[in-house]
Design brief:
The chain has twelve helices and 20 strands. The protein is an alpha+beta fold. The chain folds into three domains: 248 residues, Beta-lactamase; 99 residues, D-tyrosyl-trna(Tyr) Deacylase, Chain: A; 62 residues, no CATH class.
Length: 506
C-alpha cells in the first residue's frame, strides 16, 4: 500500500462497547451529515440469478492464472438487480478498499464539514512579550498536520506578541490512543506503516537523506513540508558496517535511533521513514520553527491532562472532512483512515484503546447500516490482513450510497490500460473506484458505466492467503512473485469491467 510524497498533494499541501444509539455529537452529525443516508433499503438477494454471461467471467478469471481465490459481484447501481456473481459470499481481505467503509463511517458520524483542530494554549497572560505561565501544544488527532501548518501557528504566536515563557512547554496528544504501528507485522522501516497519536506531523514520517564522499557518508533527518524543512534530533541515523539488516531501530522515551548498512547506500539519495514518537517529533519541530520567528521555547514535556483554565493563542484547522477523505481515497493514506475511524468511534461514545477495538465499532455500525453479514474489520485502513468483507457486502455499501451518493463523488477515476500497460486515452468506460493492494491480495470496488451500458456497482476481491502468510516479516516489503501476481490481478479486474460494460446494456 503506497503513500505519496509532498508534491502529490494538491494546492501545495501534501498528502502525503458496542455501537451506541444516539451518537455523542448528534448536533454536528445532523448539521452537516451526508444528504443521502445509507440506511437499509431492499437488498440484493444472496442467491442472484446468474446469466450465461457469467461463463465469460469465469474464463477471464481462469486466464489470469492467479493462485488463491477470487470473488465478485456486479449489480445495477440504480435498481439493485444483481447481474453476475462468483463466490460473492466469501469473506476476503479488502486491503485499502476498507477505506471506503471508513469514509462512510466518518461522514455519517462527523459530517462533511467536520475539521480537526490543533491548538496552542496558555495558562497565563502575555506581558511585555513574556508568557506568565505554561504553554501547551494540543493535538486534535489531525492526520494531515504538517511543518508548514506549525509555522502558521508560530506566526500567530509572534503576532500575539510572544517571545518567551516563564513556565513549561507541554505537549498533549491524548485525543487519540497511541499506536506504535498500524500493523506490527510489517517491516519496521516502511513509511506507510507509521505510529499514530492525538498529535501527528507530516504523516508521522521523517525524511532521511544521504550523500557519499568516498568512504564518508553525510546523513540528515528533517521534517520537510513545502516551505519549511527543519532538521530534527528526535530521529537520528547512524551508518554501520557489515550489518545483516539494512535498517535497525531502537526507540527510546522520546527518540528514534536508526542504523543503516553502509553497503545499502548509493552515492546519494533519500527516503521517508516512519516516526515512532510522533508527539515529541511534532513538539521539537514546533520549537525549532518558533525559534525562527524569534520565540524561545524550552524543550517540551508530555502532558496527559489539560489545564482547567487556559486561553487559545494559536490554532490550525484541517480541511473539511469530505475534502480530506477525497485525498485519502486518491492517495490511500493509511494514517488519515485510522485517525478518522478512531475519531468517529469516539464521537459515537466509544472509548477505544486501540485500532482493533475501534474497528469492531465500525463493523457493528456497518452491519446495522447495511446488513453486512460477512464483514469484520481490525483497522480502518486495510493495512492489516485480518480485515474481511465479502463482495456481496461491499456492493451492499455501494448500493446504499447509490450512483449519486458521496462515494461515487469522492472516489478517484481509475485509468484503464492496453495490453502493454499503457493508459487508454480514448476509452469511453468510466470507472470510479477504490483499489486495494497487499502482497498476494488485490481488491477493487466502485462504480462503472460506458456508452449505452447500465450504471454498475461492483466489487472484486482476490487473495492467496496461504502464500501471503508464508512470507517472512523481513521480506514483506517486496516478496518474490507478489508483483507479478498483483499485476495479473489488476488486468483481470479491467477485463471483467470491460466484459460487464459490453454485456449489460441500458
Amino acid at each position: 500500500m503506497t503513500q505519496h510524497p509532498p508534491g502529490d498533494f494538491p494546492n501545495r499541501r501534501w498528502v502525503l462497547g458496542a455501537l451506541m444509539a444516539g451518537a455523542a455529537s448528534p448536533a454536528l452529525a445532523r448539521s452537516s451529515a451526508p444528504k443521502r443516508s445509507i440506511r437499509p433499503q431492499p437488498r440484493p438477494g444472496d442467491k442472484p440469478t446468474i446469466s450465461s454471461n457469467a461463463e465469460k467471467a469465469a474464463e477471464i478469471i481462469a486466464a489470469a492464472g492467479l493462485t488463491g481465490k477470487t470473488g465478485f459481484l456486479v449489480a445495477d447501481a440504480q435498481t439493485g438487480e444483481v447481474l453476475e456473481a462468483h463466490r460473492h459470499l466469501l469473506a476476503m481481505p479488502p486491503a485499502s478498499v476498507t477505506k471506503t467503509v471508513t469514509t462512510l463511517y466518518g461522514l455519517e458520524t462527523l459530517g462533511t464539514d467536520f475539521r480537526f483542530k490543533t491548538q496552542v494554549l496558555a495558562t497565563g497572560p502575555i506581558v511585555n512579550g513574556r508568557l506568565e505561565g505554561d504553554l501547551y501544544l494540543v493535538g486534535g488527532g489531525d492526520p494531515t498536520l504538517d511543518s508548514d501548518a506549525l509555522a502558521d501557528m508560530a506566526r500567530q504566536l509572534k503576532e500575539a506578541g510572544l517571545r518567551e515563557i516563564t513556565g513549561r512547554c507541554l505537549v498533549h496528544a491524548e485525543a487519540l490512543p497511541y499506536q506504535r504501528a498500524i500493523d506490527p507485522s510489517q517491516p519496521e522501516y516502511l513509511a506507510y506503516n507509521p505510529s499514530l497519536s492525538g498529535l501527528n506531523l507530516n504523516y508521522n514520517r521523517v525524511f532521511f537523506q544521504w550523500r557519499r564522499h568516498k568512504k564518508d557518508v553525510t546523513v540528515t533527518m528533517d521534517a520537510r513540508a513545502v516551505r519549511f524543512r527543519p532538521q530534527v534530533t528526535t530521529a537520528s541515523m547512524r551508518v554501520v558496517d557489515h550489518s545483516s539488516q539494512i535498517f535497525t531501530l531502537v526507540t527510546g522515551p522520546k527518540t528514534d535511533s536508526w542504523t543503516i548498512s553502509r553497503g545499502a547506500l548509493s552515492r546519494k539519495g533519500g527516503r521517508w521513514l516512519p516516526v515512532r514518537r510522533p508527539e515529541f517529533y511534532a513538539a521539537e519541530v514546533f520549537q525549532t520553527i518558533s525559534r525562527s520567528f524569534g520565540i524561545v521555547l524550552p524543550a517540551f514535556e508530555r502532558a496527559t491532562t489539560l489545564p482547567a483554565s487556559a486561553t487559545v493563542i494559536a490554532q490550525w484547522q484541517s480541511r473539511k472532512l469530505d475534502e480530506m477523505l477525497r485525498y485519502m481515497l486518491k492517495f490511500s493514506t493509511n494514517l488519515t483512515a485510522e485517525c478518522v475511524g478512531l475519531t468517529a468511534t469516539k464521537a459515537r461514545g466509544g472509548n477505544p484503546r486501540n485500532l482493533r477495538a475501534s474497528a469492531q465499532h465500525m463493523s457493528a455500525w456497518l452491519k446495522q447500516a447495511t446488513d453486512a453479514r460477512h464483514a469484520r474489520f481490525v483497522d480502518h485502513s486495510g493495512l492489516e490482513e485480518g480485515n474481511r468483507i465479502s463482495a456481496r457486502d461491499m456492493v451492499q455499501v455501494l448500493l446504499k450510497q447509490g450512483w449519486d451518493g458521496h462515494l461515487h463523488r469522492l472516489m478517484k477515476k481509475i485509468k484503464l490500460h492496453d495490453s502493454k500497460g499503457r493508459p487508454l486515452r480514448n476509452s469511453r468506460i468510466s470507472v470510479h473506484a477504490k483499489t486495494g493492494t497487499l502482497n498476494f491480495v488485490s481488491a477493487l470496488a466502485g462504480y462503472a458505466d460506458g456508452p449505452g451500458s447500465r450504471k454498475l456497482a461492483f466489487a472484486i476481491f482476490s487473495a492467496d492467503i496461504p502464500r501471503r502468510a508464508a512470507i517472512p516479516k523481513e521480506r514483506r516489503a517486496r516478496p518474490k512473485g507478489a508483483r507479478g501476481w498483483n499485476r495479473r490481478a489488476k488486468k483481470m479486474q479491467q477485463k471483467l469491467i470491460e466484459h460487464w460494460i459490453r454485456e449489460y446494456r441500458a
